[in-house]
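seq as requested:
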Amino acid sequence: MFLKVIKTDIIEGLHKSANIIPTKTGAAFLRTIWLKVEDGLLHIMSTDSNLEFCGAYKADIQDSGLAGVQGRSFYELMKKLPEGEIALSLDQENKALVIEQGARKYKLPTNDQTWFQNFSEFPNSDSVFWSGDILQELIDRISFCISDEDTMEAIACMSLKPQTEQRIEVCGLNGHQFAMFSFLHDDLHALLPEEGILVQKKYIGELKKWLSSDEIELNISNKRLFFRTGDHSETFSLPLSYYQYPEYHNFLAKLGEDGASTLTVDRGELLDALERLLIFNTENNRCTYFSFGQDECVLTTQGQEVGSATETLATSFSGDLDKIAFPTRNLIEILGHYQSDKLEFTLTGSEGPCGIRGADDPDYNVIIMPMKIVEETYYSEESS
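C-alpha cells:
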C-alpha cells in the first residue's frame, strides 16, 4: 500500500471515524481505524461492534492494500501535522504504517489483517432522502426525553412510527417526561415498517455528531438503519432495537378528558422567572410551585439553606386546580425547545400528566409529570 493524500481531504473523515471507537477500553480491533486502498480511493473505516462508519476520499494511489492502526493515535498525529500532502505506506516486513511529510517520518504498528471484517453495505434499493438539519432539530427536540439507562429497554430508545395520513410520529419517553414530533414525509412513511423502528439513545448522540446540514440518504435493513451523504462518500449505520414500545396514545388521550385545567403563559417570561427561581432549589427541593388565579400565577420555591423566592406572572387560567409543582430544571429545558411566544399547559390534576403546546409549534407536544406537593417551610421573615 502506498498513497499520497492532502490532509484537508481526509481529516474530517478521520475525526468522524475516531469518534465512534473506544478510546482506551475494549478489544484492540475495536480501537482500530482501517485504511483500505482500492478503486482509486482511500477508504477509512471504523466500528465499535455496533456503529459503523465508512468514508471514501480521493488520493494519489500508487499501490492498493489494507492496514489497520490504533485509531486514536493515528487521528491525533494526522490532526497535528501541518496542512499539505502526506504520504502513507505499508511496511509489510515490520508490520507498520509509515507516515511521511517532508522531513517528518512516523511509524505506527499495524494490526493483523485477518481482524478485518467487511462492513455493512448501504442497501441501494428504495432509499429516501431527508434534510440533515431537520433530522438534527428533531433529535434535539426528542432526545432529552429519552431515558439514559440502557437497562430501561424501549424507553431508552427513540421511536419512529408511521401513522395515518402519511404522518410520522417520533417519540421519546423516560417515565416522567414524553416528547413527540409529528411530520409529513411520504417516502419515509412508505419505507418504515408498520410497527415502526427503535433506535437507542446512545447511538442517536453519535449520529448527530456525524450529521451535517446537507441532504442525506436513508435506508433500513432488517437489523440496521443506514445514512449516507448525498455524494455517497460517507456511510454511517447503527443497529435497530426490537423492544415493545409503550402505547403512548393512551396518556395523550388523558389530555383531552373533561375536567382538565388550562394555563396560558408567556414562554419568555416564565423561562426567565424559572431561571431565577432555580437559584433557590436544592437537592432535596427541586421544584417550583404554581398557584393559580384567574389572571395571574404565583411561582414559589424554597430551600433550607438558600432561602425562598416568589414571582407573579400575568397569565390566563381556567379550571379548578389550585396548585401544582414541577421540577424546575426539567421545565426550563422543555421550554427551551419551543419557538412559540405563548404556551398552553393542559393540567389534568396535581399529580396527573401535563401537556404543553404552542401555536408556533403545532407538530410538537411535550408531557411532563408534576411532583407530589409536600408542604414544608424552611425560611420565613417575621415583621418587626
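Residues 377-384 have pLDDT under 50 and may be disordered.
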